[in-house]
Amino acid sequence: MVHYVDSEVGRLRTVLLHRPGAELARLTPRNNDSLLFDAIPWVGRAQEEHDAFAAALRERDVEVLYLGELLAETLAVDEARAELTETVLADRRLGDTLRVSVGRYLADQDPRRLAEVLMTGLAHQELKPGPGGLVYEMMDKLDFVIDPLPNLLFTRDSSVWVRDRVAVTSLAMPARSRETTLTRAIYRHHPRFAGSELLYDPGLERLEGGDVLVLAPEVLAIGVGERTTPAGAERLARRVFAAGLARTILAVPIAQERATMHLDTVCTMVDVDAVVMYPNIAHTLQAYAVVADADGEPRASAPRPFLEVAAEAMRIDRLRIIDTGLDPVTAEREQWDDGNNTLALAPRLCVAYERNVETNAQLERAGIEVVRISGSELGSGRGGPRCMSCPIERAPLPMASPPLGGIAPLEVGVEATENGLGFA
Ligand SMILES: NC(=O)NCCC[C@H](N)C(=O)O
C-alpha cells in the first residue's frame, strides 16, 4: 500500500475523511463554544453535505477512507483496544468508582460500538445502571462521562503525511486533544498502515496539521500561531531533517485569532506555483527560512516576506496569488467562511465551498477549475474542504531542480505523463 505526499497539489489518490455522526448531536448552546463550533449544526444536512463532498472526490477517482471505519477495524486488535480504553480511563475527572463502571461498560462493547463511543462520547444518563459513588451522583445527567469529539470532522489537523511518514500531531485545544489517540491507534495498529513510521507524536510540542503545508517536494511551510507553537515547528523541522524528508521549512507567524487559527485558513495551494490567499495579509506575511546545519540542527534566518522566501525555497520565479474575494469586505467575509480553505485534487483543480462566490470566480478567472460543494452546516465548525481531508497518497511531483543537499527522491513510481508533471 503506497502512502506518500510530497506536495499540496499532486493528483490526489487516497484521502482520510470523517463522516460526521452522532458526536455533532452532542452540541448545544451550552457547550458549542468550548467544543469549538460557532453554531449548532443540523446533523442530517451536515451528513448530506459531507456525502456529496465524498462523492465529488470518488467521481474524480479518489479513494475515500473513513476514520470511523478504520477505527472500528483497529479496535478488533486487542492491543489497540486496551490502549484506547486505558486512555479514556486515565481521565482524572472520573474517580475510582466511576472509572470501574466505565471500564466495564467499554469492555462490553463490540469494536463498532466501542468506536462509536470513543467518537461520540458517553453522557451520564447513558451509563446504566448508574454506579453510585460521589462523582456520578454529583454530575448533571447531561454531563459527559466521556467527552464527544465533534471536531473529528476536521481530519486535517490530527495527522499529516510528509512523503512516506505520518506525523500524528499534538493538538492545542482541550476539546480536541483526545482525537490524536484515535489517529495514532489507527496508524499503529490498523493492518493497512503496518510498518508506517511515526514522524511526530501527540506527547510532543503543540503542532496541528492545518498549519502544515507541503509547498513542494522537500519544502514545507508551518504556520505558527493559535495552535502550533514555535517549539512545535522546531521539533517537526528537526525530525523532518533527520529523516531526510525536506531541505527547507518556512516558519510563518500568523495572528493568534480564531479567524486565522491555522495557516490553511489564509492560504492554500491550487497549482504548483499558485495559492489562493487572503489579500489583507498576503504582502505582510513573513517567514523564517529554516535549514539544517552541519549537525542536522534546525537553523533559522531572519524573517522576510513569505512570498519571496517561499518562491526561493520552491525554486520558482514567483508564487502567484489569487485573492480571496474582490474587495476588502468580501475578502473578510469569504476568508471567514473558508474561501481560502480549498482542497487541491490536482494542479489547477480544487474543491471549494459554493458560498464563496467571488473567490471561486477569481479562481476560475485564473484558470483553476473549481468543484463546488455546499457547506452551510459543515462550515459551522469553521473549516472547509482542506480542513476536512487528510491526504494519504498524492501522485509525486518532480523535484524543482536536482537536489543540492544530496536528498534523493523516493522511488515511488512517478507517472510518465504528457506534461511530465506526474499527473494525468
Ligand atoms: N485546518 C483547519 O483550519 N481546521 C479547522 C478546525 C476547526 C475546529 N472547529 C477547531 O477550532 O479546531
From TrEMBL:
Keywords: Arginine metabolism, Cytoplasm, Hydrolase
Catalytic residues in the record: C387 (amidino-cysteine intermediate)
Matches recorded under InterPro entries: Arg_deiminase
Pathway recorded for this protein: Amino-acid degradation; L-arginine degradation via ADI pathway; carbamoyl phosphate from L-arginine: step 1/2
Primary location class: cytoplasm
Reactions mediated catalytically: L-arginine + H2O = L-citrulline + NH4(+)
Matches recorded under PANTHER family: ARGININE DEIMINASE
Name of the protein in question: Arginine deiminase
Origin species: Paractinoplanes pyxinae
